[in-house]
Amino acid sequence: MVINAGKAELRLSVDNTGDRPVQVGSHYHFAEANDALDFDRERAWGHRLAVPAGTSVRFEPGVAREVVLVPLGGNRVMPGLRGKAGGAL
Q1: From CA 17, how far away is CA 70, in angstroms rounded?
Q2: Quick check: is 15 in a domain?
Q3: Are 24 and 68 in contact (CB under 8 A)?
Q4: In what helix (H) or strand (E) does residue 78 lie, and over which residues does it extend?
Q5: What is the CATH number of the domain that holds 68?
Q6: In this structure, is residue 36 part of a structural domain?
Q7: Domain count of the chain?
Q8: Is the pTM of this model over 0.90?
Q9: Torsion angle, CA of 12/34/2/75, rounded to 10 degrees?
Q10: Domain range spanning residue 16?
């Protein structure tokens, strides 16, 4: 199955600096993910995980991993979440 065809990919290293696992869902605005996750939030702005819809990625404490992000599609409005975007991206 091909997903995210034609979308620009962004690769980032993410480290869970917390003491508990963190999961981020497929269509969550990645820049607003849990503060325990250490990564370049400016570069991640307007992006989501490049994983199938309805799935998530789990970040274990003290473990760094690389993720692939793609731009959020549609009308690029992200209301709610943690309140950092609160509207158009």
Answers
A1: 24
A2: yes
A3: no
A4: strand 77-78
A5: 2.10.150.10
A6: yes
A7: 1
A8: no
A9: -100
A10: 10-74
